[in-house]
Amino acid sequence: xxxKLMLAALVAAICCPVASFxxxxxxxxxxxxxxLPSTVLVLEVEAVQETFYAxxxxxxxxxxxxxxxxxxxxxxxxxxxxxxxxxxxxxHSKRYSVNVPKGNIDATFLKLSPMGLISFADARNGGExxxxxxxxxKGDFSDKGVSSNLTSESATLYRNNDxxxxxxxxxxxxxxxxxxxxxxxxxxxxxxILNAREERYKIVIGDTDATYSxxxxxxxxxxxxxxxxxxxxxxxxxxxTQVEKAVFEVVPQAGExxxxxxxxxxxxxxxxxxxxxxxxxxxxxxxxxxxxxTAVSKAEEDAAAAEKAxxxxxxxxxxxKAPEEKRAAQVYYRLPATCTVNIKNGVELLLQTRVPVYQLxxxxxxxxxxxx
Length: 372
Hints:
Elements: H1 2-24, E1 31-53, H2 61-65, E2 74-99, E3 150-163, E4 166-179, H3 182-205, H4 214-236, E5 238-250, E6 259-266, E7 270-272, E8 280-288, H5 295-314, E9 330-345, E10 348-367
Antiparallel strand pairs: 1-2, 1-5, 3-4, 6-7, 6-8, 8-9, 9-10
Helix pairs in contact: 3-4
């Protein structure tokens, strides 16, 4: 019995803070609370990583083949595509509560979410962010070519003859096996390239002892071309490419200069966030379209201007109106601003489109006692 009581007390102790937290963060009963909408610009970006591996015989390309080729490995990233999607989510810095006595308003006003009345749910339905960074590799030329790594060289040895207590040196020729020098292997590879080209030329013009026709002719030419490219890669190197994908988000802030660093492109790390200073910035510029002035606003401005003119002319302010009765509660909403969005890599324009951005628009209101 004692154990059961202790367990019940423990459960109560755990549950009480949760209940207290839920009650503290709950809106008062009889009120409808909502947030004005804000726009998030989601960028789905693809970049191509190009990794160049210099050939092991690059140093001798000009000497044996008469061509100039890069001598060092290199890695670069190039933007492939950018897709921008505007999503809507609640702006919790703009939350309002409306007292809705029974019968005064129809709750269907929540259906006006395109105008900014968003409540109880996050309207955003974006996807999962996925990062993929490539692993730095090293060029592999192990399967290129068919030349042996060894060669035979002639070495001169000396043998001493003991004759009359005097040593006389005599020459002895002996072949030894040593590793080929890099230049020797480059020379042999260059010769195979020239041989393949010459043999292919002979087959094409028919200057060969063998007879080729139909598919056999094409197969012979294709094989010689393959061998030429394989040996040529030992001099000119080769390039590997792979695609990297990333997702970035930009939340425009009202009242600020509408220029943002959306993300950065680094030659060593690829697509990186705006906070990573190792990459070149990709800029996002937002140009909001101006709102036309409403008739009501124009009338109010005209009335204010007339009062100011009367005060300057007579020194007397116009009579104030009797205080009005307390107005009904207002429901606030946002009209989005139609914006032109430019994404630039330096001066190069990568993308331009028009999207609605709520937080750069205008806020307005309507009486709560109107049935919508």
